[in-house]
Every structure is written in C-alpha cells, then in structure tokens.
Amino acid sequence: MSEMPHSTFAYVETAEQKRLNTAREQGVPWKKWGPYLSERQWGTVREDYSQDGNAWNYFSHDQSRSRAYRWGEDGLGGISDDKQLLCFGLALWNGRDPILKERLFGLTNSEGNHGEDVKEYYFYLDSTPTHSYMKYLYKYSQLEFPYRALVEENKRRTREDFEYELLDTGVFDEDRYFDVFVEYAKAGPEDILIRISVHNRGPEDAKLHLLPTLWFRNTWSWDLGIVKPKLRQVADGAIQATHSLLGEYTLQCDGNPEWLFTENETNVHRLWAQPNPSPYVKDAFHRYLIGAEQGAINPEKTGTKAAAHLRLEVPAGGSKIVRLRLSSKPSPTPFVDFDEAFAARIVDADEFYKRVTPASLSEDERRVHRQALAGMLWSKQYYYFDVDRWLEEHDAHPMISSSKRAVRNSEWFHMLNSDIISMPDKWEYPWYAAWDLAFHTIALSLVDFDFAKDQLLLMLRNLYSHPNGQIPAYEWNFSDVNPPVHAWATLFLYNIEKELGRSDIRFLERSFYGLLQNFNWWVNRKDPQGRNVFAGGFLGLDNIGVFDRSAELPTGGHLDQADGTAWMAFYCQNMLEIALILTEHDSMYEEMAFRFLEHFVWITYAMDRIGDNHDEMWDGTDGFFYDLLNLPNGESMRLKVRSMVGLLPLCASTVLEPNGILARHPRLVELVELFRRRHPELLAHIAPADGSFRGYADRRLLSVCNKEKIERILAYMLDEDEFFGPYGIRSLSRYHLDHPFVFDLNGQEFKVQYLPAESNTGMFGGNSNWRGPVWMPVNGLLIRGLLNLYQFFGDDFKVECPTRSGNYMTLFEVAREISRRLASIFIQDKDGKRPVYGGAKKFQDDPHWKDHILFYEYFHGDNGAGLGASHQTGWTGLIARSLDLFGRVDAEDALKIAKGELASKMTREQVAG
Asked: Would you say residue 829 has pLDDT above 90?
C-alpha cells in the first residue's frame, strides 16, 4: 500500500457557491424559501388529539381537504418560507376525480398489507442547496383516481401478497396521463420564478384544471392575539399576501386567470354537522370545481387561501406552460426577463453538479448521483412541535394537568421544535428520526456543509435532547432508542473540514458536550448492571430479532444485544477520537480520552471474555456474534440467528497513527500504562503481544474484532449463500431460508426466516423488514469499517471474496466490491434495466419513466428491487457517497473518504469560500 501525495485543488467559486457563502457570512436569506412543505401532515402524531392515540384514524386523508392543520401544512410539489407561514403548491383536477388533487394520497398503516404506503408517482429531479433551482415531477392520470380500489384491494391482500400499486389499476394505460413538471428559479433571495409545464402523454387532447395555490398556515385559530394575515387581489394577474411577521409578497401569474379566494379554516359543517363560523372554508376550491358551488368562494377576492384557476386544453403529445412569480418586491414587468433568469439558474445548477460529481462516473451514474442529492435537498421540511403546548391541549401535561391521562411523549414536555429538518421521507415519515438524520448529513455534506453540521447540532440542543441526555428518536415515541451514530457523523464532518484547511474546533467541542450527556445516558440507562453489555431495544433494526426487542420478553429475563454492545464500542471509539483532537487544544480532555479508551476495552472484553463462557455474545464454535438471552433462572443462551446484529461489530474499529496525539500527552500515556499494569491479562486477550496489535506503518488498532474474528465473520458476510447478495450485504443470512431459527416457548413458536422482500409480520407496523433485504446505512458503515481495517492491515491481508470462489481481495477491494453492488441497484444493466424497479415494465421501458430514479427505504435481498418507503432519499442518499468511492481507483483516497478526510471538489470549494 503506497503512500500517496496530498491532492491539490484549484479553487474557482461558482455562482451557487457565492450564494452559499453570502448566506453563511452575510446572512443573505438565500435559503429562506425552499421545499419546506410536508407531503403529508394528516395522520401524524402532532395532529392527533384522539383519546386512544390512533393518529391515522383521528385525522384522515378524507378530512384533510376540509380540516385546518394545527402544526404544519402539506402540498403538492410546493414550497414555503422557513417558518412555513406562507405556502405555495399545486392543485389539479382532470374533470373526473371525486377529489381536487391538492395533496398525495396513500394508505394508512392498517389499510396497507405492508403498512402505510403512498400510492402516487412523483419525482424529485433537481435542486441546488440554496434552492436557487428546483425541479419536481408529478404524474397525473387523465382517468378517475382509483381511491376506493386501492384501499379495498390492499385491505383484501395478505402480508404474503404483493402490494396493489397505482399502475396495477390501469389508470396509466395507453399513456392517458399528464406529466406535470414544476420548476423554481430564484432571481433573488425573495424573488421566485415558477414554471409549470404540463405534458399530455396520451393519444387524445385532454383538459386539465390547474390551480397554482397560495395560502397561509393557520396560526390565528390557535393563538389569541395573532393578527390574521390576508390575501387579496391587487391586479388582474396578481394577488398580494400580507403577514405581520413575514411582510408583503406578491404572486403574479402570466395572463389573466380567474382568481379564487377562501379561508384556510375548517369546514366544521361537513365534518361534524355544526355551523361554520365563516362561509368560506378550506375545501372551497374542491366544492367550487367538483360540486359546482358558486357560493363556496369569496366574491370579495380576499382570504387566507387563493388560487389562479387555469383551464388548460393540452393537445395529444403536446404541452402547455404556465408562468408565475412570487416576490417580496414585485416587478412591473415580471415576465420580461423570466426565461432568461430561468436559463441562468439551470446553468448554475449544471455547473454546481459538474463540480460535485466525480468525473470518472458514467452519464447514468452521474444521473443517479445528481438525483440522489436532489432528493436529499427536496426532503427538507419545516417541523413544528411544541410538546409542552400539545400536552396542555391534551390535558396530559405531567407537571400541570390534574388528570392522569397516559399520552405519548409526556416526559418530553421541555421540547420545542421549530426548524428546517432533513426528513427520511416527507410522505411516509414526515418527522425526523435521529439515527436517519446522522446518515443524511454524510450525503448532505457533499452539497451543503453548513446545513449538514447544523442538523447534527440540532439534535443536541436543549429544546430537542432530553435533560437526562437522551436524543429524541421520532415523534411516535421520542423515548425509543436509536443507534448512537451522531458522534461518528460529527467526526466525519470535522475531518472533512480539517483536511480542507478549516478545522472547526468550536463545532467539535459544542457537539462533544452534548454527546457526552448522551453517552452518560446510555451507560446509566442501557447497562444498569454495569457489566459493559448493552440492551437498547429495537435499535432501528425493527423486526430483526426473534422477539420484539422493545417489549418485555415473553420468556422473562433480559437480552444482551450484540448490536447494542457493538454500537457502544463504536460510540466509545468516536468519543475517544474527538477527545484526542480536543486534547491538542486543552489538556483537560486527556482524562476524558482515557475514560472512553477504558470503556472501549471493557466493552470489547465483555463480548468475549477469557475462557470458554456460555454467557457472552461471541460464539467461538460458530465464529459469529449473537444476542444473548438471559433467563430468570440464571441460565443464558445464544439466539443463533445470523443477522446484521452479528456483523455490526466489524464497524467498531479505530486506527491510531504512530507518534500521533497519544504520544504527545504524557498524562494520557501514564493512565494507559497504569491500566496495562493493572489488567495485563485483559489487554493480552484483546490486543495480544504477537504483533497483531501493530499494523501497516506501525499503526495501532482498536477493534472489537481481532484478526481471527474478522476472518471468520467475513467468511459469512462474503458468502453469496449467506449475506453477500448481488446488490449488497443482506440484513439476514440467506441460510435461514431453508434453515429458519425456531424458538419454542410452551408450544408457542417464534420463528426467524429469510424474507428478501416485505415483512410478513406486523412487528413495528409491518412496513419495514430487517430479515433479508439490503439496507443502505448499515452497508455504508460496513464499508467504512472495512476501509478502517484496511488502513491497519494493508495489502498483505486478503480474504476470499466471494467465499469459496478462490478469488482473494484486500479489504479495500472488498469494500469497493460492496460499493459496486450497491450502486448497481440504480444503474442500468447491460439490458438497460434498473434493478431498483424490479418487474415494473413502465419504469423499465418507458422513456418518460425510466430515467427518473426513486430511492427506496430498502431493497430486495436477491434482485435489488426497491421496497418500503419510495422516497426515503434520506439515508439511501448515501449512494452518492458510495458512487464517490466506486468512482475512485486509489485506495488512499478511499480511506480518506471513509474517515471523512477527503471531500469532493465542491465541498472543498465550500470551505475555501
């Protein structure tokens, strides 16, 4: 493994980078407007005021057109300001639908045979980090939308059946649909050009009612003293929006459309048969068009919700374009320079992505890379939740209310969230998830370094993290436990900046104190017996275990989790590395660094103690890590399921350079030596004196796995009959297809069998599956772990890949092969097919579909087809990082990517700027 010279970079600032720089350094609000609308606000915990906590049933899709939201807004291809006070989105009607299309439709958790699922086709095609240019596509059938058929057929199907999809209903047959493209281009920070292009893909001319809609989020119905904002028509083609906090904006529409006005207020008459306080309510446009109710809209041309009503007749194979402009300083000639400004923003976006994408990628790889990052940027959402206020409104505040109602999240009354946050999926998961968010930042740092760092710090702030140190999991249960990956993501981002010449110690130190509180919470809450073995519950892996790991065990006793313990070893390593960096600036961190080193050693020892023990996670006979079931009678047994749980210990590795920070701090050396003298047998077991603790270039290795364990685990992981699928590492070994693990408890059978596709159980809602499919985040961590180990072992250590193939690879080459297999999910194969789309002929063959990429939640373990949430670009956006690795041939560069020490050219430009 040869040492490579430091790469050079010629800094040239692009137009988009100038916007990023002025936003950061001068406060110019280039990010004030963006795709911050949710795709679904109905059916969320925030909007749930039910007695039984059934959020899906309390606020349904059917109610959403008529009922004002309390905590946020949703829309179709929309945008808003960064506090979601003023919103813009589309409404569509084909003349046949029973409902005006103002938002996406999908099944609730109980309606879908695999849980909740959006039943629409839409694509995030492009976006720059300041949202100076964005592009979105919605495919709208010209036939009646089959709401009832989708609900009834999916309810009829079992968990063993495929889902019934919109294409299956036939509404896209003969290409009788519209492609509705929405593009946004900023002429200035608060001057937004909007271009809507409607293409008729069908064989006949077709009519479409297009309603570009502007509305205010309803804040006045909930808070006394709020000045109600106002929309009013000020010219034939323009309306003015006035808000006491936001100021004034004008929406201008090319031509002379019919303007419709109403109020964004609940139609209580429709929902509950009570008199409406105002005759003009939220569903007025639906009633005006579909119900032909002329009195539904306000003839005074004023309100809090307004739309330009455009009747389009689109010729077969033809298109129509509508132009609008939303600005705080309206132009008297808004459309004179419109096309020119749009073209300039598209050039800026092309220039930006030319810089961020590795030049070695093919055209199709570049397409996937760009759309992955565009999806990351489109997945931003304004998230508002005042839990203190919400609990009061439920009469369930633990410190104030006299009632004893059991309401979810009651222990989080300190929480106030009101920020732009990267969402996993703005329809299926329109709420943040802590460990998802850490992975999001790894991809986001390719395009917006400042936003990525802010996202990590957000979860550690007092208004988010619990006073006891716990990081909130997700709104269904903030107290659930996600894997502790924030420290790793923090270190990754810090290392990128450091390598680029901007060492942000303040960011690292601010993060460290929040992470220290969280680390202490883990130690105190998840290792209550102080044995350095950890539980944690489902830990993001949903149904991977024999039992529901977040519930009481049916056997009694408790579970020692191999993944929970490995996550904590990984956490210790990351905190050690951060503390060592901070020690360079303040020696007070020496003691902290030693504390994490000591924690790591004891955790590693606890997973495989000296001697032949049956109450530890490492099985020396099998050569694999398993969860350990501790029964009430004192007996212990390993649950011998070969799953991702047993692979994750490979991720817990850190390489220390010789003559590095450790050698420059005598107090730290003294503490390490004292520990060595007190526990010689422990260190001899973990880091034997046979030279295996010293590697390439005299580097030192801190790892849960020694060389023998690494070889034995990799023999499973790289076996194509076990974990090594054609599209990445499976979450459960394929061995369990014919050899399911069965646990019998008094005649009740608990079984874990390889399921490469959707789950066949209702555990954790039944809408995800960790018993076979490929998941991007853990594959990314395994790649990082292999590269770290390669940094230590070098070229001399090779393993058979695939197992029994006779082909031997270095760990770098193995990491690259996994990365290649992951990328091939999305890349066209030799027949022009994308595995992600499986057998969906329309997506595979139609030129208007096949190059629009969806980044699913997880992927079929055998054929790579996309599964679960269809727009979880969040952590699946890691494919952009994977393509970076796949696009490089140099091992040293790949190592720096894994450690966060090598950024793309665009990231270099961000820092240099």
From this structure: yes
Whole-angstrom Cα distance, residue 387 to residue 392? 8
- ∠ at Cα 104 (98, 106), nearest 5°? 90
Q: What is the pLDDT of residue 7?
A: 36
pLDDT value at position 512? 98
Q: Give the pLDDT confidence of 45-83 residue by residue, as tens digits.
A: 999 999 999 999 999 999 999 999 999 999 999 999 999
Q: How far apart are CA 720 and CA 561, in angstroms?
A: 26
- Alpha-carbon distance of 591 to 579, in angstroms, equals 9
Closest CA to 197 of 186, 185, 214: 185
Global pTM value: 0.95
Under 8 Å between Cβ of 232 and 250? no
Compute the half-sphere exposure of residue 868: CA atoms within 13 Å on the CB side of its CA.
26
Place of tokens 């003294």: 670
H or E element at residue 607? helix 589-607
Nearest to 862 by CA among 777, 779, 774, 759: 774
Residue 241 in contact with residue 248, Cβ under 8 Å?
yes
Could you tell me the sign of the dihedral formed by the alpha carbons of 481, 487, 490, 491, in that order?
A: negative
Contact criterion met (CB below 8 Å) for 507 and 529: no
**Are the beta carbons of 300 and 224 closer than 8 angstroms?**
no
The set of residues, in sequence order, having a beta carbon less than 8 Å from that of 738 and lying 6+ positions away, is none
The tokens describing 586, both together, are: 């303040």
User: Cβ neighbours of residue 611 under 8 Å, at least 6 residues apart?
Assistant: none
Q: What is the C-alpha separation between 442 and 875, in angstroms, rounded?
A: 9
Element (H, E) at 681: helix 680-686
Burial class (CB in 10 A: 0-12, 13-18, 19+), 882: buried
